[in-house]
Every structure is written in C-alpha cells, then in structure tokens.
Amino acid sequence: MVLSLTVTSGIVADLEMRGEGTLVGIWVWIDTIRPAGQAFSHNPFLRPRSCAVVGVPLCLEFCDLMLIPMSPTDSVFLLAESENCQMQVGGLALFSPPEGARASDVRDMFAAAVARDKVAGVWRKRARRSVTSLGQWGWDTGGEVDLDYHVQYSALPRPAGMAELWALVSWLHAAPLNRERPLWEMHLIEGLADGRYAVYIKMHHALVDGVSAMGMLRAALSADSGRRGGPALWEPVEPAPKPAPDSRRGGLDMFGLPGRAVATAWGAAREAAGLVPALAGTLEQALWRRGGPLSLVAPHTMLNVPIDGTRSFTGCSWPLERLRLVAKNSDATVNDVVLAMCAGALRSYLTSKGALPWAPLVAMVPVSLRGTRPERGWGGTVDAGNKIGSLTCGLATNLADAGERLAAVRAGMREGKAALASRSRLQVLAMSALGAAPLALGMLVGHLGLLRPPNVMISNVSGSPAPLYWNGARLDALYPLSIPVHGQALNITCTSTDDTIAFGLTGCRHAVPGLGAMTGHLDHELRLLERAAGL
Fold first, then answer.
1. Co-location of 22 and 165 in the same domain
2. Model confidence band, residue 311 (pLDDT cutoffs 50, 70, 90)
C-alpha cells in the first residue's frame, strides 16, 4: 500500500516539489500518515505537500526550477504577509485622453497591447521556494503570463467623481495577489464624468519599492505628446546602450585583479567593523531623543493597533510650486513641508476624534539607497527590488503653531540625515533594520511588543519634472497606495509628476474611520504654512 506523508520542514514551510530525488539531511516532522491523494492543510500560508513512501531511501519530488535568488529585504515582505496584512503597493494614474480621443479609444490601445503578448522580465516573476532552495524565497521567471488575468477592465457608474473612484480602488487594493501567478495586476477604469480614465496598478512590495516603481512607470511613458506605438507598462522597453569597453585596457586586467581583490576584501572588513559603532550610535541617538533610524518615544495612538483586511483610500493633490515656495521661505526642503503638512493634518484628525496624545507623534520616513542614475535589469527594464533605509522624525503634534511644527520637523530631519551621512549602504541598512525591529515584530506576530513602532509611515517619491504621456494620453496625477500594517494603521505616500504633487492615504478602514477628512486637513495645513512663511 502506498501512503502519503504530510511533512512540514523546520527549514521549508512551503515545499514545491516537481521532479524526483532523495531527501537527505532535511529535518521533517511527520504530522500524519494517510492514503495517498487525501486532502492536505487548508491554511493558505502553510501548505505542506505530500511525498509517497516507496521504501528506503525516501523519495520526494523536488523542484526542478532554477530560482533567481531573492534579497532578504525583498523576502521579508513575503514572510510578513498575512490575511489581514497584505504586502502590496499600488498606484492610481489619472490620464487625459489624446485630443479628439475618448477613454474607449484608450481601451482599444490596452487590448492591442494585451494581444501582442509581450511581457518584460520583472512582470514574469513568480515567488517560489523549494527543497533545492532550502526554503529560501527566490524568483521564477519561466512560464507563461496570462495577460487576460493580469490586465482587467472596470467601469464606474456614470457620471462618476473622485469619491466613487476612491471607493473602487479601496476595494481593489484590499484583495490579495495570487501567489501562484506573477505578483501584479493592472485595472483600466472608465466612467469618470470629466472624460479622463484611470489606471490602477498593484504590485507586491517584494517586487518593487517606490523608487523602482516610479522608474518602471517612467520607462513606459514618454515626454513626447506626439509619440504613438509606445509599450504598455508590462512590455519590454529598448535596453539602454552599453558603454564600449576601454580598448586601452585590453579586456580583463589580470595584473590589476589581485589588487582589486585585496581592496574588496579590505572594504568588506571595514564595513563589518563599522557595523557595531553604527548600531551603537543609532541606539544613543534614540536614547537622547535625536533624529535617526530608531525612536523609543512614540506615544500610543488609535493608529497603533492590530488591523484587519479592510482598506480605505483617499487622495489629494496641489501644485508643487506651492510647497516649493513654503520650503524656500522657511529654509526647509519640500520633504520637510510634506511632513509638516501631515503633522498638522494628523493633529486635526486626532483632535476631532478626541485621541490626540500629549507627546508628539513620530513618523517613519523611508530613504532611498539607490544611485542617482536609473539602474537597468534584464531586458532593459528598470531594476526592481527594494533598496531602502529609514529615518524617524518627531512630528511636533504637541505644538499648536504650524510654523513651529515645520521648524521642529526640519531640525529632526537634519539630525537624522547627519546620522546617516557618513555611513555606508550596508551600515544604513543595519541601522534601519534596528529602527524597524518593533514594527517588523508586530507584522510577524500580529501584536505589538514592549517597544512601540513609529505612529505613521510618511514617504515622498519624486517623479518626472516634465509632463509624461502614454501614446498621447497625458498623465495628470499619480496617487500612490501603500501598506497599512499591524501597529501602523495609516500610510501616507506622495509622488510628484510634472508640476503636481499627489498625496495617497491608505488605511485600515476600521482602525482609521473617516479617512477622507484628512484631505481637508492637509489643505488647511498647507494654507497655514503659507501664512507662516509670509506668502
């Protein structure tokens, strides 16, 4: 009689076994013995597979896929995901159709792109782990991509406004991505009363961070309003030309190789030696309540609770020049102004709920660790993945004056940037990991520990300074959607396109009721900051 063993590995939690091989040296627990073919666990996050017992040695089906390694930063977003805490980010792009065209014409262009059936590398990635990867997550880029599944069409009841669009996108963003497929979806949305159309894009955070997502969008768009026949976002773009090799070097420099190897080893040793003082400095900054990657003083608020799977989204936008003028007249940066706007809006929102704490709120502020030039990956696509660190910043919500809040935010961000300025990328990652530890623990175990994480995540991703078009359709605004998590029920992310900055607020519907009121609070705060700056 052939029996089926349901096994769960101490190393491998989700086995994908497809060839034949011999199990050697993997610690397993035999949970049950049952007739082959009987159903296994119904838990979608822990799905043990079966193996047939045919004698000794035990024979299993092994995964025959060659997986591309996944960075630990990327894999964290898969490990931390749960039913109530989905790890997908998104963007809602608003387009004006080309002159003389209608939104239905754009639908035809999308249909033509789907029919071409060309998919770039990052849009093919499936998350996999197997016996051969020792349970570590990796990327599988093989297999077909069903574009009819990934590219979908929606229509709002006419005449629809932004409130109806926010409601639809809130519902779309709450739905989990299918891990058996590449981790993305795209929805073309019609029915807006002003004749524009929207494109909602959802991708797993393991695939992209905000900067790489913006780079992928820019690669598919054009600054030329007259260009036609451009690729859809998921299609390959022309690879960037590679610089010609220096003929004077004659190819591989064998004489310089030992010296470079020694320099690399010495650099790695210095990096490792610098980690301990970097982490010690991060802890010292936090103890003295200075800006840096770690905060130990975040108060408890209604935002810092476990969340469920419901989502609420709203957005708002302003001319970027208004924020630039406030920054110029206040000796601050645009990012400081964004933080101060959010600080004042949160103060007003929490006051209206009778929930404003005496201590000032603390924000977690992601910082990009990418270079200044776009990084290209396979097939000419912009390099994806996550290359981010983080700072914490006090929001001075205990201060009633908008100008004083901006000054406090400016000072805190300068302290935080100074703490990172002399550090290497590896050291910044380690310092950021220490700062994110309270939040990560809450994400993984579903409840908060003794150390409370920062109260809210606030991110600002710069976009194109020039107008962008897709086959003649002008990108009017791009509203980012992000991830509420256990302990941080609200996420605020901003992006700029051309002369507009758009705020996207994503929250847990039950933990952050009446999220739409935040847009009015943000607008009011910008006017207060303009007044404080003498504008």
1. no
2. very high
Calculate the average pLDDT of the chain: 76
Please choose, from the candidates 207, 201, 181, the residue with its C-alpha nearest in 3D space to the C-alpha of residue 77.
Answer: 207
Q: Residue 206 is part of which domain span?
A: 87-220
Q: What is the mean pLDDT of residues 489-507?
A: 93
Question: Which residue of the set 173, 187, 204, 205 is catalytic?
Answer: 205
CATH of the domain at 129: 3.30.559.10
Number of domains in the chain: 3
- Answer whether 410's CB lies under 8 Å from 332's CB: yes
Over residues 28-58, the pLDDT tens digits come to 322 322 333 333 333 333 333 333 333 333 3
**Greatest Cα-to-Cα distance within the chain, rounded to the nearest angstrom:** 85
Within-domain flag for 264:
no
- Residues 254-284: pLDDT tens digits? 344 344 444 444 444 454 555 656 556 566 5
Q: Are residues 424 and 488 in the same domain?
A: yes
**Whether residue 205 lies in the annotated active site:** yes
C-alpha to C-alpha distance for 517 and 528, rounded to whole angstroms: 17
Alpha carbon distance 432, 39 (integer Å) = 43
Residues 6+ apart with CB under 8 A from 288: none
CB 479 within 8 A of CB 501: no
In 53-176, where does DSSP find H-type helix? 72-79, 103-116, 147-150, 162-174
